[in-house]
Every structure is written in C-alpha cells, then in structure tokens.
Amino acid sequence: MNTELFINGEFINTREKQRIINPATKETLAEVSLASEKEITLAIASSRAAFDKGDWPKISQEERKKFILKIAQGILDRAAELANLETLNTGKPIKESTFMDIPSAAKTFEYIADNFQKYLQEEPIDIPGQAKCKLIREPMGVVALIIPWNYPLLIASWKLASALAAGNTVILKPSSLTPLTALELGKIIHAAGLPKGAVNVINASGEKSGRIICSDKRVDMVSFTGSNAAGQKIIEYSSGWVKKLIMELGGKSASIVLKDADLETAVNSSLCSVFLNQGQMCTAMSRIFVEDDIYDEFLANFVQKTKRIKLGRGLDHETQMGPLISEAQLKKVTDYVEKAKKQGAKIACGGRAPYSPALKNGFFFEPTVLTEVLPGMSVFQEEIFGPVVCINKFSTPEQAIDLTNSTDFGLAACIWSKDKKSAEDLAQKINCGTVWINTYGMFYNEAPYGGFKQSGFG
C-alpha cells in the first residue's frame, strides 16, 4: 500500500510517521507519512501554481473527461484491493466495501465525466432593453476537500470528481484515522496522467491542517464533511478571507412509521438505516417514531432482529456489523448510553461492549435499542455516531412532525406508509434536506444532497 503523500505529481516520504490500526484488532496496518506545516504549505503552493499557470484549468471539458474516466477505471481495476483496504482501515464489513463503497466511488467519477458539461454551459438571461446578458460558470480555483473517516474513498470521490470536472485544482485531506485508500487514490491519479499539482493528497492532523489550509488566502474554497465542532473551526479559520464553503455536518435523523406501513419492510429497512456502518453515518435514522397502534409489534420485531446482528471482523463474510473506528469513539458511545440510563431511558437490547473473547481487542459495541427516551435527553437531541437508536411512539402525524423537527439538526428523514399522498404531505413539513419515502439511503449523483440548521449548507 502507498504510505507517502502525493504533492505536485511526486510521492513524498516524510520523517514524521503515523501508525494506522485495524479497529477490529488494534493491529498496526501501516505507518504512513504525516505532513508537517512544510508539506501542507507545499501542497497549497502546488495547487495554486497549477491553477494560475498550469494546464488543468485551460484544457477542454472533453479532455478533462478522459482523465476523470481514467480515474474511474483505475478504481475499478483495483476494486478488490481497495475494498479490502477500506475494510481493514475502517472496520466495516467487506460486503459493504465491495458492493457499495468502492463501486459507488467509481460510478461517481463516471457519472461526473459523462454529465458535468451540461452544468458548465453558458445560459442566456433575458433582460429588458438592447443589451445581452449571459451566465458563465467558471472554476473556483484551489479547492480543499476535507474528508471524514466513515466513508473515506466514497466521500472523497463525491467531492473530487466534481471539483476536477469544473477545472479546479485540489488539495485532498483525508481523515488521519483512515488515509489509506485516499493515498492509494493518489497513485491512481498519478497513473491517469493528470498534470502536476492538479491533485495533491496529504495526510495530516485535522487541527493543524485545517487551520493552515482554511486560513491561507491561496485556497479559494473548502468542502468539508465531518463533525459540527470541526466545522465551526473551519468556518472561523475561513472567515478571514471570506471563502466559499460547503459544510456537510451532523445529523439526528428520524423515521416516522405510520400504522398503514408495510411493517416487515419498515422494520428491516430501519435496521439498515441505523446499524449500517456501525451507525457511523450522518444520515443514520437514530430516532424511530412509530404510531401507537403498531408500536408494540414494531418494537418486538425490531429488537428480535437486532439481537441477531452478527458482530465480527470486517473481512469475515458473515459479519454484519464491525467495530467503531477508535477507542475515543467507543468511549463516546458508551458514555451516551450510560447517561441515557441515568436519565431514565430503558435498554431493550445491547447497551455495552460485547463479552466475546473473539472481539475483546476491537472497538466493538453491541447494536443498542433504547425506549422511554424523552425529547429533552441528550441521546434524543445529540448525534452519537454509533449503533444506538431511540424508538418512541406517537399518536398523531402532527406529534410525529413535532418530534422529528425538535432537534438542532436537519439532514434527513424517512417516512413509512402505503399512502403516498399522505407521506408526501408529511414530508413537506419536515425541516431537513432529504426525505426518503418507503426506502432509505438512496443517494444519486443526479440529485443534490445537504441539510438545514446545524447539519450544514451547500
């Protein structure tokens, strides 16, 4: 695997190293180069020179398309290797990496290559009088892409493909917990033959790199996915130069299950919506509101199936849920559950690290169902980013809407009902960016994505 930074078309080995571990075993996977201020500054200078004086912004959209398709093919050519690496580094089950994350990353580059030109076409604007007016879209310049640890290659691909297609030059900064597939992506980009400086991939501590990159006037735009605390710092660092920002932050998403819903589908899909990727998703449906007529049946079915979820190492094909990403994340999830218990919540199942000897070395936490959770409790209001769900009942649709909208987040929601018209009417009243009806987690390159309130903007 690649352990070097990719700056100005060259692979750089640094003196300072970082140990990358497998969260399922705590075993060392690699020691990778860690960028100091010198390498971070070099990456910024490389991106700036490549945009101001280099070839990438000047070449035609058709030429950029060929390069982007080469990146897509490079991912596909190494799909099995990348899936294996993603699973080892994040702990997620190999089936998720193999069938979801890596193919979706390649498809993102393919879609952008084939379709982005239509977003860049000139648009005439009708104005009164004899003057003519047209709208022309141009690249922003140097764009910093700061990636979280839950979907390292996929989210990098979402951001990188569009930024490159528009003619920007890019600094790609993965999470220092999960840099391995991003560093491999640097090799794929190098093999695709992009001009020097078009893409720079650096592994660095989030605090140090965020401050340097976001406060540097040579960086025109920052696209960030991650925690609200880190997002607030990025906004602060960027404010001195009034940068363009895209912020995809936290969520406390909710499912509303109406009494006319297909119960089996609602239960099975809700399990996926909160326990996929160990619940480490900003769109995790960590609050489920069930109409009181079917609450007991839904809860019993949900708990029964939750208890059957198989925890294990990601490379085991029978594993359905892997470990959390780190010891700090395990402690965070544990603390939230303990606090919820003290505040009066009841544990229907889970609620602890497993006792299994096979799992004792990893950062595992049992899938957890909480009941009797009140809206004022921390576990109801705050993002946990782990396999913990609150299941509450409601009596009227209005009550369900009030509960759904009662947090500071507004990222996503689900509605389960056989009455499509009623579901769409409810969706209009939910204050969030994405509402799924009778499905969960369907992301399309064709559709915009983002949230309201503390979930971000752009």
Task: Give a verbal description of the structure.
It is built from 14 helices and 21 strands. The protein starts with a strand and ends with a strand. The strands form six sheets. A seven-stranded mixed beta sheet has the order 14-15-16-13-12-18-19, with helices on both faces. Strands 9-8-7-10-11-21 form a six-stranded mixed beta sheet, with helices on both faces. A two-stranded antiparallel sheet has the order 1-2. The chain is α/β, with parallel strands linked by helices and 458 residues long. It is 38% helix and 19% strand. The protein is globular. Strand 5 and strand 6 form a beta hairpin. Helix 3 crosses helix 4 and helix 7 runs parallel beside helix 8.
Which strand order spans the largest sheet, edge to edge or round the barrel? 14-15-16-13-12-18-19
Oligomeric form of this entry? single chain
Measured distance between first and last alpha carbons: 34 Å
In DSSP terms (H or I, runs of 4 or more residues), the helix count works out at 14
Mean pLDDT: 97
What is the fold's blueprint, element by element?
Layout: E1 5-7, E2 10-12, E3 17-21, E4 28-33, H1 37-52, H2 61-77, H3 79-90, H4 94-115, E5 123-125, E6 133-135, E7 142-146, H5 152-165, E8 169-173, H6 180-192, E9 199-201, H7 206-215, E10 221-225, H8 228-238, E11 244-248, E12 254-257, H9 263-275, E13 287-291, H10 295-306, H11 327-342, E14 346-349, E15 368-371, H12 378-381, E16 388-394, H13 397-404, E17 409-410, E18 412-416, H14 420-427, E19 434-437, E20 452-453, E21 456-457
Parallel strand pairs: 7-8, 7-10, 8-9, 10-11, 12-13, 12-18, 13-16, 15-16, 18-19
Antiparallel strand pairs: 1-2, 3-4, 5-6, 11-21, 14-15, 17-20
Helix pairs in contact: 1-7, 2-4, 2-6, 3-4, 4-5, 7-8, 9-10
